[in-house]
Design brief:
326 residues, 12 helices
Length: 326
């Protein structure tokens, strides 16, 4: 009985020391390594949403794609439902883990009807025995995301951006996954449509018990949908905590700066709040500063910050941050 409880409480997704380095030509017969993801670790529980935030170019999308093995990791491992993801488990992992892409305009094949786009995972994983069963499943999926099943014979260009993203979500659901990487799924949509799509993702999570890695740069959206939030900077996770804890008690100076930029709807509170503007530019991931990657833009930086990179350590129960000056 205790073993069954342990299995039920175990995280669905475990990412351990994940690294992805791209070799980049830096001159005649010279190659430098671009460290897009550098030693990233986290877990995602069953039915949980982990938000992943940070500036553009910090490696958020690359983490999601590497986790799903759309990129081959340089080092580290991904454990899904207790099994290491490798060649022997890849086929089953591909069925149980899916992705919703950022751009609904380029992620749908313009030469395929919407019905065929949604049915593609069904065909790949041979989930339906007959064409009639396949068509019924497609109609059911389209209805689930709020698209009329009568529109299954249309092409992607005949739909709006919000409708296309709904089609992308229907495609992700087609293989009955347990885990979905949502790569900035609302950033290309109008604000009013963003709320509809986020609420739909939450409803689907409750109905199907889905787990999400929700990648975004809009902290207000991430706070709304996420149970926990991880903050990334230059390929590293610098802070991770429960959503409310992170917003109330941010520890890392980078997180504090990000939160200070979130618009406050109350004009009185907005006037009292202080915007923390970071100095300097984001360093190149090919020429990272020694020690802490954030030290060149940090007002707290000391000599120790240049000597060694800070490790994630607990600053409160369930709240970790990577800073020497906490």
């Amino acid at each position: 009985m205790s073993e069954e409880r342990t299995a039920a409480n175990a995280p669905l997704v475990e990412v351990k020391n994940l690294k992805l380095y791209f070799p980049i030509s830096s001159g005649f017969l010279k190659t430098a390594m671009l460290k897009a993801v550098d030693d990233v670790s986290f877990t995602i529980g069953r039915g949980e949403t982990l938000g992943l935030v940070g500036e553009s170019g910090c490696g958020k999308t690359t983490v999601g794609r590497t986790l799903l093995h759309l990129y081959t990791p340089t080092a580290g491992e991904v454990i899904f439902d207790g099994k290491r993801v490798d060649k022997t488990t890849m086929k089953e992992f591909r069925r149980r883990a899916q992705m919703v892409f950022q751009d609904p305009y380029s992620s749908l094949n313009p030469r395929m009807t919407v019905g065929d786009i949604v049915a593609e995972p069904i065909d790949v994983h041979k989930l339906c025995r007959t064409k009639q069963e396949r068509n019924e499943r497609v109609r059911e999926l389209l209805d689930t995301v709020g698209i009329s099943s009568e529109q299954a014979t249309r092409y992607a260009h005949e739909f709006s951006g919000g409708q296309r993203q709904r089609i992308g979500i229907a495609r992700a659901l087609a293989s009955n996954p347990e885990f979905i990487v949502c790569d900035e799924p609302v950033s290309a949509l109008d604000v009013s449509i963003q709320a509809q799509v986020v609420n739909m993702l939450e409803d689907l999570q409750h109905q199907m018990g889905l787990s999400y890695l929700f990648i975004a740069h809009d902290l207000s959206v991430v706070k709304h949908i996420s149970n926990r939030i991880a903050v990334m900077y230059l390929g590293h996770i610098v802070e991770l905590a429960e959503s409310n804890e992170l917003h109330r008690h941010p520890a890392h100076p980078y997180t504090i700066s990000l939160l200070s930029a979130v618009p406050i709807p109350d004009p009185n509170r907005a006037r009292e709040s202080k915007r923390i503007v970071l100095e300097g530019d984001v360093p190149s991931p090919m020429r990272l500063p020694s020690g802490c990657p954030f030290r060149t833009r940090c007002s707290r930086a000391t000599a120790k910050c240049a000597e060694c990179r800070p490790e994630l350590r607990e600053v409160a129960p369930g709240h970790v941050a990577a800073c020497h000056n906490l």
